[in-house]
Amino acid sequence: MHSPASSRSTNLRMVALSAICLFIGLQFKNLRDLFGTIGDVDIENGAWAPDDFGDQPTRTKRGQNRDRAKARRQRREKNKDSTNEGKAKKKKKNVKKSRRFEMTNYTEGTFEPLPWTLPESSPMRHQTSEEFMAKYIATKRKHNIPLPWEEDKDKYADKAVSLPLPIISLNFPKSATLTIKHYFDCGGITSIHTSTQDGRIGVCMMENQFDGKPPLDRCNTHSIRDKDNMDKPLEIVPIDFISDIGMQGPPCYYSSLHDGGLENIAEHYPTGTILLVTRNATSWYRSMSKWGTIMHRWKKFCGFDGHLHQGDNMDYWTNMFESQDKEEYWVNFYHAHTQKIREFAMKHLSMTYVEVELENKKIGQILEKYTKVPPSCIMDCHPGPNWVRQNNVTSRCHPVGQNPAHMKAQTMIEEEDGDNDDDDNTESGDNGDDDGEKDVNNEEREE
Questions:
Q1: SS3 letters for the chain?
Q2: How many CB atoms lie within 10 A of CB 213?
Q3: Of 56, 93, 294, 333, which residue is most buried, by most CB within 10 angstroms?
Q4: Distance in Å from the first CA to the final CA of the chain
Q5: For the stretch 89-99, what's the b/e string if a residue is b when 16 or more beta carbons lie within 10 angstroms of its beta carbon?
Q6: C-alpha–C-alpha distance, residues 227 and 112, integer Å
Q7: CA angle 425, 428, 430 (to 5 degrees)
Q8: In terms of Cα–Cα distance, which of 64, 164, 117 is closest to 311?
Q9: Which of 267, 287, 265, 268 minimizes the C-alpha distance to 276?
Q10: Comparing C-alpha atoms, which of 136, 168, 185, 200 is closest to residue 268?
Q11: Mean pLDDT in each 10-residue stretch from start to end of the chain (447 residues)?
């Protein structure tokens, strides 16, 4: 049992200890306030000392970590801004400059369909290309008008082709527009399909017709550029050949269909060349029907079924459209287009006219006669990137007989023929093989 004196002594010691702890705590606070943020504290050994006792206050590990984290955030933000700026510059660099002649300059509500005409049937419509060209050549000879390919060879000795320039191809879409472009490319002249560097050829020709200017005014040159610096043209050359020059709208314009288009060509290029490649009209229609919405747009924006315009000629085509099978109508439409161009050629003999059939097995030799470009320049071409991807190739054009799609189709036909054993099936297979070859040929070089 403790005595009262002992208890008092214990209490005094406790009070003294508490006072000492309070005093030490106050001193610690005063030192911290005096020196600012303290350095490392050795809590385990109960010792304290600043890491760097100097003019500048030191940082605790926690403070240093915060500083490092803040610096990392700032670096990330800076890198992010730099990356975004780089992407923005790259994106800005890749943005194509707006071209002068664009279809997007027109809308359905602001562009009225243009009037067009096609002739009613005449015997000229039913001639083959070779038959018409024989008549055309005889007519020019009768009027003592020289034919370029029969003139003194010295005149075209230093020329890539033996035809007056420019050469304007009036083929319908899906009638070898791309094939013939590559043909003249191969022949060594500047050839353009669909669009120049100034925009759509059709828009350019349409606006120039409205303004009474030459069809290719302001879109008749091509800049050859350095691949390493596309903004720097190495050379500016004239455009010699154009194809796929129509538009299905809006706006809808075909110089060979719409009123005044052919006349504007003849007025400004009286010694130029008109080229027309024709194909089997039924094959053309079936190919066109599978090509996007072009036939729908021909009716909606162009009125090529006759419903958007009035007049005797439009009544003729409207009645035909309403009374005939659609394939039959468009076959007649195609032949009437050929007839119109032939009639135009016979009325403008100062110009040079060349017509050839796509399915003619001698197309290369015939074209060489007129142009002096070798038959080896004739290629099988197909439009659009989808065909390239589907057939796992790098080019839309291949030498005749080496088109991968046609070779695959021919292989399938031969495999089917090999499965037929009896005579009846063999005969049927032979017919099928002929039909297959015909289908392949009809699709060959359609663009």
A1: CCCHHHHHHHHHHHHHHHHHHHHHHHHHHHHHHHHCCCCCEECCCCEECCCCCCCCCCCCHHHHHHHHHHHHHHHHHHHHHHHHHHHHHHHHHHCCCCCCECHHHCCCCCCCCCCECCCCCCHHHHCCHHHHHHHHHHHHHHCCCCCHHHCCHHHHCCCCCCCCCCEEECCCCCCCHHHHHHHHHHHCCCEEECEECCEEHHHHHHHHHHHCCCCCCCCCEEEEEECCEEEEEEEEEECCEEECCCEECCCEECCCCECCHHHHHHHHCCCCEEEEEECCHHHHHHHHHCCCCHHHHHHHHHCCCCCCCCCHHHHHHHHHHHHCCHHHHHHHHHHHHHHHHHHHHHHCCCCEEEEEECCCCCHHHHHHHHHCCCHHHCEEECCCHHHHHHCCCCCCEEECCCCHHHHHHHHHHHHHHHCCCCHHHHHHHHHHHHHHHHHHHHHCCCC
A2: 15
A3: 333
A4: 120
A5: eeeeeeeeeeb
A6: 41
A7: 110
A8: 117
A9: 265
A10: 168
A11: 62 75 66 51 44 50 70 76 62 64 84 93 95 97 94 84 97 93 95 93 96 96 75 84 93 96 98 97 94 91 90 92 94 98 98 96 96 93 68 69 61 48 33 33 44
- Both tokens of 49, joined, read 């000392």
- Which amino acid belongs to residue 214? P
